[in-house]
């Protein structure tokens, strides 16, 4: 079924979004990480938008560092790298759009005709890309954009703008979810190593749990190291000592 106003094949779009959501669920459940989640979005967007010959995701951190993630081809990665090097291009403009996700779309229909980023356009045209659509991602801790490239000038239809925006929204949610999983995993690892370090101190100095933790905190303050780093050092040192003292087999 095709929407009369948008020209979108609703059934095909629902199927593509469902497949992408399924891939994301498997990725996050398996702790595939941020890059795997973004790769799922890129694959889904390419399947849903036939005019897109390439796709990628650009992220800008709070310090302004620009990185490309999940490029569909090596050529796309090279095109994105040009933007990172010169500090301008459609992907960066979309990511930095301060008016929010409703207006955060950068559309260059024909890069051969007076493009606003001539150095970027030169590289894109040399790679065979004549049009680009970039959709802003709102992720909280960083800015970003979902980028779609076409080998044909004016290759993207109005429906592609709608579909691309939906995938950009999905990418933002996926990115937030992947980062939350990463943070939780790191928190669990930190908790585990601190627990091991406390156990070592409790056994070595006959301390109770609060006393062992207080000793770790004091060591962290005295050495100006993070508590987790102090705990890791203590666990590693204990293992090395045990290995040295263990009798030869």
Automatic annotation (TrEMBL):
Residue ranges constituting the ANTAR domain according to the UniProt record: 174-235
Presence of keyword Transcription regulation: yes
Cross-referenced InterPro entries: ANTAR, CheY-like_superfamily, GAF, GAF-like_dom_sf, GAF_ANTAR, WH-like_DNA-bd_sf
Keywords: Kinase, Transcription, Transcription regulation, Transferase
Molecular function GO terms recorded: kinase activity; RNA binding
Pfam families cross-referenced by the UniProt entry: ANTAR (PF03861), GAF_2 (PF13185)
Translocase listed as a keyword: no
Name of the featured protein: GAF domain-containing protein
Originating organism: Pseudonocardia endophytica
Lineage: Bacteria, Bacillati, Actinomycetota, Actinomycetes, Pseudonocardiales
